[in-house]
Amino acid sequence: MSRQDVKIPTITLSAGPVDAYPAVLRALGRTVTYDFDPYFQGVFERTARKAAQALNTDQPPLILQGEPVLALEAAAASLIGPEDVVLNLASGEYGKGFGYWAARYCKEVVEIEVPYNDAIAPDQVRDVLEQRPDIAVLSVCHHDTPSGTINPVNEIGALCRQHDVLMIVDAVSSWGGMDVDPITSHSDVFITGPNKCLGGTPGLSVVHVSDRAWDHIDANPNAPFASMLSMTDWRKAWSADEKFPFTPSVAEVNGLEAALDLYLEEGPETVWERHALTARACREGMKAMGLTLWPAREEIAADTCTTIRVPEGLEDEAIRQASRDLYGVVFSAGRGSLVGKLIRIGHMGPVAEPVYATVAITALGGAINHLGGSADIGAGINAALAVINAARV
């Protein structure tokens, strides 16, 4: 069968993008208005203000016209100057990858790297900041999605403030599903987007920039402007009284507003707990089924993505294909050096509902058994239900 003939999956439990909420899809279908029409300028400002409320900030964030990889590269290009020393924290493929962008613009990259099933310890960061007082910028991925692990950005951010270091945080796959925001984490550039925990579509980036960061960008002689990588171009674009530097994605902005409305109406704490409960149920079910979690310690496992070691003697691609073919359920593969070592189960947005933990257990266990492995699906389902029932009583 060619790829053109492959049927759409029944349920997507990927690490993103996720299936969008129906309200988001309806919003995408609204009339596409002229971007300089006063109506759309009002929509853009209203959406930016809602994003500020969701981010726990007073200042509306940048809404960049591209998925968050654009914002990550833009942060490197805009914030990091030619005389800056950057401390990059690498606990996974995405954290490691930011160091390559940083190296294009800075004087030197210093790196703390740990095994990709572990997390960065604040003490490691403190030691390097004390040894290298010339460090100007620190970059960290909060939830390194290919590993399913989280880094303690609040503690790391506090250290950055003590040492007058600017911090860039990749919160693309955690914000909206976990208790993290730019203020409590002391982030200077905080990057996220709608296509993960918000249950939106992959076409925009949402970026908080602190006053400290703007001062640094203004002083950077190489900060881009009139460019897709320019954060400066979009600094004031949130205001209905300002012009856009180029045509924004009108439909995507409509979808982002709908996603923010859902998040704010449900309440952030309720949304976080829904993600956390789904993840807890999934982890307990996987362990009871006889499988092994990828993170070195469960306390660093993310609430938005469960990662499972591939059972010995089986191949990850075969497991994922069997799950799709037999049950219509899609999981994510590893990335980079982790390809073939783990399988990722997303708990984001619409599928961050505890019942989907039982779907993941059934589909993954069924695929493993079909391929000759051993998974006790009944024990897994019972363990997951016990977690769900205990939380709902």
Kindly describe this structure:
This protein has about 400 residues and is an alpha/beta fold. The protein folds into 2 domains: about 5-15 and about 265-390, Aspartate Aminotransferase, domain 1; about 30-265, 3-Layer(aba) Sandwich (Aspartate Aminotransferase, domain 2). The protein is about 40% helix and about 15% strand. It is built from 12 helices and 14 strands. It has a 7-stranded mixed β-sheet with strand order 2-10-9-8-5-3-4, sandwiched between helices. A 3-stranded antiparallel β-sheet has the order 11-14-13, with helices on one face. Strand 6 and strand 7 form a beta hairpin. It is globular, with a radius of gyration of 21 Å. About 55% of the residues are buried. The mean pLDDT is about 95.
* Largest beta-sheet characterization: 7 strands, mixed
N-to-C SSE string, H for helix and E for strand: EHHEHEHEHEEEHEEEHHHEHEEEHH
| CATH topology name of the largest domain | Aspartate Aminotransferase, domain 2
- Uncertain runs: none
Please identify, by name, the CATH architecture of the largest domain. 3-Layer(aba) Sandwich
N-C termini distance: 47 Å
> Helical element count?
12
**Annotated CATH homologous superfamily of the largest domain:** Type I PLP-dependent aspartate aminotransferase-like (Major domain)
Dominant shape: globular
With strands numbered from the N-terminus, the spatial order across the biggest sheet is 2-10-9-8-5-3-4
Instruction: Please give the domain count.
Output: 2
Mean pLDDT across every amino acid position: 97
Structural class assignment: alpha/beta
The value of Rg in angstroms is: 21 Å
CATH class of the largest domain, named Alpha Beta
